[in-house]
């Protein structure tokens, strides 16, 4: 049985030969007994070098080289592991820096977005060439149609359809006068149901009503507004209703935009 020492120091091949005593003529040739050489196959080492050393010293040297190679491989693996850890640490630090940069960029983006939105609102409400500031009283269907067709494309027109016998209608007319002074670039109008050529049924069941136009198109149609307000509604309720439905821009935003543009 091969031992570890045999593996390290190598094994010698021993040949054994036995025969009968010398030359007896009557001995048959088949009586000769010859032992074949016995040799243990040396197990192959994991060392894959090109060494041809087969003696004890050569095997030891090969084994030492093999162990040295193992140590070098382990050291290289450790270096790679440390390098990866360092890279991960650098990446984490970089990610934190990127998050801070992203926060700063988000703030800059929001500021730029607000600025652009202000400019859009000023384009809508701040056209200095079109300024009203008072409620326009429409007296006939033709005047109604002309007012819608000939107004600037960017101008929002809010028409209050009312009846003189309706208390809520009269309150809204009063409120519109104040809103027209605040939103001078929105065209506020009022028209009696009879002047607009509307039916008696609309006079009974439809007023007060808002018809909203822009660029010759109706963009809002709100009838029986008393269902939207309480009995003691005020100017702020009417303004908020128009803002919430996208008809008016928030006046504080418009004022801020005007100050910014100046």
Automatic annotation (TrEMBL):
Xref: InterPro entries: Phosducin, Phosducin-like_reg, Phosducin_N_dom_sf, Phosducin_thioredoxin-like_dom, Thioredoxin-like_sf
Phosducin domain span: 43-97, 102-250
Gene3D superfamilies: Glutaredoxin, Phosducin, domain 2
Keywords, ordered alphabetically: Phosphoprotein
GO annotation terms (biological process): regulation of G protein-coupled receptor signaling pathway
Pfam families in alphabetical order: Phosducin
CDD domains for this protein: Phd_like_Phd (cd02987)
SUPFAM superfamilies: Thioredoxin-like
Region (Disordered): 17-56
Highest taxon of the lineage: Eukaryota
Coiled coil: none
Bias (Polar residues): 39-54
PANTHER family on file: PHOSDUCIN-LIKE PROTEIN
Family: Belongs to the phosducin family.
Protein name in UniProt: Phosducin domain-containing protein
């Amino acid at each position: 049985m091969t031992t570890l020492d045999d593996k390290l120091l190598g094994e010698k091949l021993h040949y054994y030969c036995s025969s009968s005593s010398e030359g007896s003529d009557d001995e048959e040739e088949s009586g000769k007994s010859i032992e074949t050489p016995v040799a243990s196959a040396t197990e192959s080492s994991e060392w894959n070098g090109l060494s041809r050393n087969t003696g004890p010293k050569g095997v030891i040297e090969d084994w030492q080289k093999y162990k040295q190679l193992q140590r070098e491989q382990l050291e290289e693996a450790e270096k790679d592991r440390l390098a990866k850890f360092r890279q991960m640490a650098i990446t984490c630090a970089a990610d934190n820096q990127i998050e801070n940069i992203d926060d700063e960029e988000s703030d800059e983006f929001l500021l730029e977005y607000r600025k652009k939105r202000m400019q859009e609102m000023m384009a809508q409400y701040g056209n200095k060439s079109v300024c009203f500031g008072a409620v326009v009283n429409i007296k006939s269907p033709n005047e109604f149609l002309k007012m819608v067709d000939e107004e600037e494309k960017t101008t929002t027109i809010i028409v209050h359809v009312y009846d003189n016998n309706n208390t809520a209608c009269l309150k809204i007319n009063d409120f519109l006068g104040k809103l027209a002074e605040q939103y001078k670039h929105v065209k506020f109008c009022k028209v009696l149901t009879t002047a607009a050529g509307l039916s008696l049924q609309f006079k009974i069941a439809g007023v007060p009503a808002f018809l909203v136009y822009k660029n010759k198109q109706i963009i809002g149609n709100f009838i029986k507004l008393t269902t939207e307000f309480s009995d003691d509604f005020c100017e702020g309720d009417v303004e908020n209703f128009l803002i919430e439905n996208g008809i008016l821009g928030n006046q504080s935003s418009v004022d801020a935009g005007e100050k910014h543009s100046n």
